[in-house]
Amino acid sequence: MTKPLSRRKLLAHAGVAPLYLGGVGTLALAQQAYPNRPIRIVVPFNAGGATDVLTRLIGDKLSARLWQPVIVENRGGAGGIVGTDTIAKAPPDGYNFVVSLNTSLLTNQFLYDRLPYQPQRDLTLVSQFVNSPVTLVVHPSIPAKNGPELLKYMAANKGRLSYGSWGVGSYAHLAGYSMSVSQKADMVHVPYKGEAPMLQELIGGQIQMSYASALAAKPHIEAGKLKLIGVTGLKRMAVLPNAPTLAEQGLTEEFYRIAGWIGMAAPAKTPRDIIARVSSEIQRICVMPEIVEKISSMGFTVAASTPEAFAAVYKKDYPVWERLVKTSGARLDL
To answer: Who has the most CB within 10 Å: 17, 166, 215, 283?
Structure first.
C-alpha cells in the first residue's frame, strides 16, 4: 500500500520550498498563517478577454501554490473603474486583489475628474504580469504596407478616414488621435464597447484603421481580412515574429514605443509581508514553461516583478500617459 505523502513532500511537489528558522526545517509562521481562506481576484472587465484569460491561468497556479481557492470575479464597467474601485475599498487583509490593464490602474486618473479612487493613495502594486504591446491593422483596401506609407496615406486623405478603439481614453484612441494630429489627417474616432465589435467593423470597411491585441487580430490577419502594419513597443512579438515594430520602421514618437501592461494591485495598507509573498509566487509562476508559452501566444511578454520594480515602471510610464491624454483632450464623466 502506498504511503500518503507528508505535507512537506506535498509542498515540495507543488514547488513550495520550506523555510528554515534557527536551523530547524519548518515552514515559516507567515506561511502557516496566510492564507487560510479563499483569495479573491477581481478582473474589472467582462469574461473572455485577454486580461480575464491571463488572470485565470495564473490564478489556477497560484491556488495550487498557496493551498487555497483563488476565485476570479469579473466586475466590468466604466473602463475598469467599477471593479478596480471594488478592490480599492476592500479590506486590506491579503484576500482581495485586482488584476487590470494600465488603463484603470494608471490612465483613468487623467481622464476622469471624479474618479472614485486614487490609485497611488488607495492601491498598492503587487506585481506586473506582462507587457502588452498591440498591433496596428488596417482594412485591406488601404494601400499602405508599413508605418511610413500609412502616415503618408493619412496625410493625403485628410478628413476621409476613421479609426476605431475599444473606448475613449484607451491606447487605441490616444495613439490613433496622436497619429491623426501628427499628419493633420483629421481622422474620425469611432469608439466601441470592446475589441470584437471594433474589429468586425474594420473588417467590414466601416472604419479604416485600428490598434488591436494580437490575440484578437491574428486570426483575421492570417485570413487576409486585415492587413498588419506593425506592432507597438520596442520588441517584436513572438507570436508575430515577422512583424516589425513601428519603432523599427522609423516612427519614433513615444506613443509608438510605449507598451501597455497587465498587473496586480491590492488595497492600500495590505501587509507588506503578504504583498511580498504573493508577488514572489507570481514571479515563480510566470517563468513556468507552459505559462511563458501561453503568454507569448497572446502576444504578450513576461514581466513578472517585485512590487518595487512594478512601482518603477509605473513611475516611468506616468508622465507619458498623462501627456497622451492631455494632448488628445479626452475627458470622461462617470
So the answer is: 166
